[in-house]
What we know:
By secondary structure, the chain is mainly alpha-helical. It has one domain. Helices cover about 40% and strands about 0% of the residues. The chain is built from 4 helices and no strands. It is rod-shaped. The relative contact order is 0.06.
Amino acid sequence: MAKFIPFVKLSKKTQQEINKSRRKNWGNIDPTTKRPKNSKAYNRKKAQAWKDDFPTSELFYYLVKF
């Protein structure tokens, strides 16, 4: 029978192996993607989306002709 050694007194390498064996495996689940977006947070893409909808230079050519 192996002699009991407190966890604190084990070597760091042995402690790491024990910690790894105690941790659970998430498998294919990525927990960071499951959080909802914060609606109050600043979103750069949303803030500058008006640039994508802004009329192209064709509008300016049309206005300059008049």
